[in-house]
Task: structure prediction
Amino acid sequence: LTTLSSLGERSLIQRITARLSTAPWVTVGPGDDAAVVAPVRGMHDVLTTDAIVDGVHFDRRFVPFDAIGHRALAVNLSDLAAMGAEPRCALLSLLLPDDIDLPAIDRILDGFLALAGEHRVTLVGGNITRTPGPLTLDVTAIGSIHPRRILRRSGARPGDHVYVTGTLGSAATGLRMLRSNASNDPAAPNDCVARYLRPDPRVRAGLLLGRNRAATSCMDLSDGLADGVRQIAEASNVGITIDASAIPLSEALRESHARDGASSVETALTGGDDYELIFTVRHSHRGRLRSVVNRLAGLPVTRIGVVTKSRDLLVDDGGRTRPLPHGYEHFR
Amino acid sequence: LTTLSSLGERSLIQRITARLSTAPWVTVGPGDDAAVVAPVRGMHDVLTTDAIVDGVHFDRRFVPFDAIGHRALAVNLSDLAAMGAEPRCALLSLLLPDDIDLPAIDRILDGFLALAGEHRVTLVGGNITRTPGPLTLDVTAIGSIHPRRILRRSGARPGDHVYVTGTLGSAATGLRMLRSNASNDPAAPNDCVARYLRPDPRVRAGLLLGRNRAATSCMDLSDGLADGVRQIAEASNVGITIDASAIPLSEALRESHARDGASSVETALTGGDDYELIFTVRHSHRGRLRSVVNRLAGLPVTRIGVVTKSRDLLVDDGGRTRPLPHGYEHFR
Result:
């Protein structure tokens, strides 16, 4: 095996750089002290960074290397989507333990670059260093946005309806299946596993919601629906009541939970890794939302609740309300 | 002690965010899914990322937490300086092991924000995660530059003179002293230790070199002079001969090496962590360089060699030439 120490940092960077495509607005690409890019006229820059760590955000024992590369970019594109931004470029910081070999790095890049290509994201720079710790990928993603099209968390107003894209809880179920090795069961609904391994950031949905000014607030669901509801409510100084029966669940999730007896709704509320968007829409703007949904061709958008003046965070279980559970919080 | 697990990620982010200043061009600051910043009219964005890892790039046993925070930003500002960019904002990604407590994080931020303030850099976002591995800080720094003022590595031409800012080798000597605990010796030249602990990125020098179009190429010296010479020569398809006797050494380095018998020149050539700039200047542009130097008020700029058509990389030791040694390369 070609190990990192026999290859050297510079050769590794050259090997990666040789795979990269460029774009006309990239003034200086990888290989210099920094990248230089021309901004989009009239637009602002959107900047986000998110790291994934082996043993914390994924587990090398059951997540293939290309899925690790995919995920590292996906979680960042999801943040851009939540702002309504159009992604443009990314920086990739690789922290490599000694037992990572060259084929593994190639596979990580496979996953990263495939998703980048799908969203026309150019990898313009990055950094490689060894670490005595776990494999870590830290990505910075940069997008562009018109300053009057920004989707913040803080714009929800009483009476707005609460929506989510896609279905919830599948990724958390997929992770549970991978952990218990049940994913090898041929009867297992591997849609859940696929949703966990290769989340599909809702870039187009965020972009259309921003451009159509359809949403009053928006964020992405990385730590479960309950966490997203809480964050939007706190940032907007409002309450939110979620209708439990309206939460969109995948067929695969329902089947899995029918077998194991777990509550699908609870999984959707508290399980993480969905990377769907939660957003609020003024009643008078539902026409704008309809035109967004029409252009999303197949991605479900579901109304799951309502914004309230009272600051309470509630789940409505068929007429009986209960407090919103807590989502996943890191360090806890 | 207040530990991370008792505080929670969100409270920690709020604690940090409360310390941050903002700027009129920050459209959305920390606390949303991503930051939004207005670009500078007519300028391009300069993007760089660099991580520092405990046990690889520093050692918590002898580097104070505020110096760790300082260093994480400094190495990135040094990359911006090497392009001739004006720094504007940064994202800070903190990867925290369980034994890092709140006072340590506060001190890391002290060092980071003090240097940020000095260079008018706004911390607009970031990420915090726990890691089972070592303390790691990954910073993305963003600057702006006029597209015709970019300092690349690739512009050196035969006949150009080679210059460096400051003095070389001090940081490597400081690190050696810290490692051997000699820094507690009252006779020890602690200038070296200070240079290692809190490198001063040459932001103003890079900016002036770019604005005056004084340099044909430029990069920063993070892995020693020999590495910098090699990189510029390779990127520019030229050779470089360095005059060993011209390499600027600090008084503290000379004194230290007079005692321990080490070669100051070899330390400067192969020791890392200097974060000075190396750059090349056309003979006919030495007037431009003079006006840059006049405005640098006290930062020495020293001619150390010449660019050659032959691709050889040489050190001239008083008339006898020898091949340029290799600098520090990671993974080796």
The CA atoms of residues 64 and 197 of chain A lie 8 Å apart. The two ends of chain A are 39 Å apart (CA to CA).
